[in-house]
User: What shape does this take?
Amino acid sequence: VDGFEPTAATTLRRHPERGRHDRDTVYAILDQGLVCHVGFVEGERPFVLPTSYGRDGDTLYLHASSASRMARTLADGAEVCVTVTLVDGLVLARSAFNHSMNYRSVVVLGRATAVTDPDRKLHGLRVIVEHVAPGRWDSLRPALAKELQATSLLALPLQEASAKVRTGPPKDPEEDLGLGIWAGVVPLVLRALEPVPADTALETPEHVRRISNGTR
Ligand SMILES: Cc1cc2nc3c(=O)[nH]c(=O)nc-3n(C[C@H](O)[C@H](O)[C@H](O)COP(=O)(O)OP(=O)(O)OC[C@H]3O[C@@H](n4cnc5c(N)ncnc54)[C@H](O)[C@@H]3O)c2cc1C
Assistant: This one.
């Protein structure tokens, strides 16, 4: 299947023309993002917590301290809503009302399961590390049993998801175009800078240089 079947919950009502449900678009956004926001209800109260993640095929992996509210609630099978947002530009219009942003965002709905099988857990953690810093996992000291115990890995199947994409200039109404007010887009990117070594005796490895120079 190369698309997510839109459900009642993932059908866009506002600006539906900006909606996408094909896996290529959804996965490209997930793969470029570094931070997701995980929304869930614990008891009566909603929480939306930022965290890192990784994707392997049709599974989104999240990890958290085993003692954390997020890990406990998600492992209990709570409904979860995960969003990833890439901000591509500030859209400055002639009126406050028509200001906007250019963006690509994804909403994933579902229930996660806690991964306890040791091999799959290691695999999921590797997916998260490699998502953030490609090429890093194999250079690391292997995870200790106590570290694995202290970490919960949650697997969220990618079954119900949507993307929304805004591109292009401000959409001012005809009558505002001649007001003599500057309008346009300020493009934005998230950019890696020079790595700052924790130990200057070591040479910066290739995988870190690639992150830094944007060829990751
Ligand atoms: C950087 C950024 C800035 C934004 N600024 C504003 C703002 O200032 N004001 C504003 O009203 N809206 C803004 N939006 C759009 C906002 O995310 C919602 O799409 C919009 O508010 C409509 O909400 P709704 O509940 O009516 O959506 P509906 O269209 O009713 O949502 C139905 C379903 O559509 C899907 N969906 C909706 N929005 C998104 C999304 N952004 N990404 C992926 N799937 C989605 C979800 O599956 C959702 O459950 C912004 C989005 C981004 C990414």
Q: What stands out?
A: The mean pLDDT is 96.
